[in-house]
Structure of DUF4982 domain-containing protein:
Amino acid sequence: MKRTIFTFLFLVSFLLSAAQRVKYNFNSDWKVLVGDAKEAAAPSFNDASWKKVTLPYAWNEDDAFKKDIVDHPTGIAWYRKHFKLPASAKGHKIFLEFEGIRQAGEFYLNGKPIGLHENGAMAFGFDVTDVANFGNEENVLAARIDNDWNYREKATNSKFQWEDKNFNANYGGINKNVYLHVLPKIYQTLPLYSNLGTTGVYVYADAINIKGKSAILHAASQVKNESTQPQQVAYEVSVTDLNNKLVKTFTGEKVTLAPGETKTIKAAAKVNGLNFWSWGYGYLYDVKTVLKVNNKPVDAVTTKTGFRKTAFQDGMIYLNDRVIMVHGYAQRTSNEWPAIGLSVPAWLSDYSNGLMVESGGNLVRWMHIAPWKQDVESCDRVGLMQAMPAGDAEKDVEGVRWDQRKALMRDAIIYNRNNPSIIFYECGNESISEPHMAEMKAIRDQYDPHGGRAIGSREMLDSKIAEYGGEMLYTNKSARVPMWAMEYSRDEGSRKYWDEFTPPFHKDGDGPLHNGQSAAAYNRNMESHAVENVKRWFEFWNERPGTGKRVSSGGVNIIWSETNTHHRGEENYRRSGEVDALRIKKQNFFAHQVMWDGWVNPEKHRLHIVGHWNYAPGVKKDIVVISSATKVELKVNGKSQGFGTRSDGFLFTFKDVAWQEGTISAVGYDANNKEVCSYALKTVGAPVALRLTPIKRPTDFLANGHDLALVEVEVVDAQGNRCPTALNMISYTLDGPAEWRGGMAMGPGNYVMAKSFPVEGGVNRFLIRSTTKAGKITVQAKAEGLKSATLVLTTKPFKTENGLAKALPAAGLPSILDRGPTPATPSYTMTRTPIKVVSATAGANADKAEASFDDNELSDWVNDGKLATAWIEYTLEREATVNEITLKLNNFRSRVYPLLITVDGKEAFNGSTQTSLGYHTIKCKPLKGTKVRIQLAGTTATNGANSGVEVNGKKLDDGVARDDAKAKGTMSIIEAEIYESLSTGTESASKSGE
């Protein structure tokens, strides 16, 4: 009996001593050798000559943006780390967590193999309890990393579909964060399914009352008992807000776990006074889940998460009961920087992702590959919605490669399901089959049934299972699930080129051929690139919520920042970004700020004059203003140039404006002629000096061997104004404990890591990496004929002990709350009243007429190619005054249809359609009736300016695939919508977006 009591007391004492699990930053004190060193797994191997690095670190980082993606170096690299575990950790569980590597790795601890990971995309873990040393006995961790483009999974001899030289930049090695966990023997598992097979903690909310600021919060922890005795475990949950104020504590069930048993423990309670996560409002809570034995804590996990309400219905996306139209960016998951690749410090991820929100972006669609945890958590903090893929290339697959995709989706969902910014799970970069969609949906429902996330894929226009869809470049609409464009406006243009009137006088479209074809659309200047982005966005916005029963949910522009991936222009990297590779804003950035400052409609009037005001005497040029105002007036030195010609919703063009030194200004007015916004540009003086400015950061510059300072250099005039046409070559010197990583500009090797490189448009930036020694760093910039500039930076000590650090990579980074909570007002009002079509007949193929109004953009009605049969007649649900008809016609990009439209036999329209990205709205003479007839009035014509052929020769989508180019009497309608104005509509017109 005494022995039993002693054993029990000893066990309780042990459990209490283990109550504080520890998560260590495991990034410090690594060594790297590029090459396949024999015996490098052995603890006694001599690695004294290897390069010392701090993770995350891609061994081929020097070539990021220096080389084309297809030339990124590949091969074997070994990573080794010597470390010690405290003696107090003995008897505990020891786990390693890797956020990811590229591509595959074989891992050894103290000479013993601990595991293999191969998918090159997702996090994984190892249980090293039985092979770890403690106290003064050293541990040696070794990893053999292979980033071969053609790496094949050992068990299946299959490549992973996402090993692709178009989009998946190959930054090899351990390129993401690593952690070491010390856990008690009774513990909440880690969300690392690969190798460990565990799912961790799941926190979610339901019964969400946005107006009442309440919800029922749920926590569920997978718990494992690796002690030798059965244990009765109680469960407690506490919720703490951003101000570290305890909001709620509640308890859950008690369970008994046998030795070696794993169970899930749950708790739930209503919580009041909640702040809900939203766009630009990264409000997060710490949810602490505690395991107790005999009322004493034995393990505690803190999950940082946020709560929000979503719905995906009626063709629209709802966030916190308010309709939100997607406007953001399709961004390569590598999200890379020059000479660094993806492995940037967490503050720089927040800076980049926060700029997306500043530009008006509300969603980032990571492309092809699951994002790394640092970017996922960053989007939580800055309030940026995410679409999270698993892994894909460009098509559906079968067999092993499909199994690999499912496994990756499972792992990614488990790892990221507590991150509120993830709104969409993407199952493919192109459509997948319905059975495959059902399999992916089942994975979502198994591991994240309550997360409020839609699962779908690109395209999926007629899927009955996918919860969202949408093509790349075109406008899709739906009355059922949201449809949004997955990547649009892929044109490219360098930041160096303002317009053809500014040095170096790049004429829009000039540049080399691509694959033997014109690449004019991929060699734009900033002015035309911004104009094109406005035109593309307007087509989606024109079909926004409020315009009918079938609507577009928006789209994401490809891309956010320049990327070292697939390109079509004159450089060896893609230049489609709204910011360049160093996140310097281009004119596209400001175009989006104007159009996107609202959930559906712009809610704040803005105005931007594209370009600068530093031209040569005699220059006359068209001035473009982008504004959400109703009309815009332009002035030069106070003299009015009149009102601009409005087009594409937000563009105002002023023809042949003569340059004069001084000020050009623009004023925007609303429909009541009230001034609502303004903007001005001044002529800047001659260059006289350089200026160095560190980009503001919320945390100290740390001497951890990984942290980066981002510094801006400008050429300025005597008043300190940036000179917008300066192209000066700048040379730099660096002194102190730091490593020069440099900047980037157009030129040899893109000047990556060079100590001399030019400004473009009067500005550039460069990166400096800390070493592990703290101290003062001095940077000096010089240019011929200009006053030099000096900047002093100071790094702060970073504490590590025996290879372990307590400070985690994202420590101290704040949530960004600038946009405020979700507004309580509706995000849109109806602009017209849709009239339901109840039936249709046609001159030919009448049995297929319903396909022209079935809310399925993969079906259409088409006649038999004869002009006499090229008509269709719709019967409306009620008599209505028809004002507008919106059509999606086959070959919408390339074909013009002459149409005659009648209402009850009376002519309402006689004219030709226009080519578009999908839909064209015809303004009709208002006529009342119940029968609307659309008839082809003559032969169709091909618009040669919009042939829809890519520079690689592939024909882009142009509607329903059919070879009817020679059938001039063919009329084909994919979708037809009939509208009356609100003044003659029904009460349904008052429906709002709330």
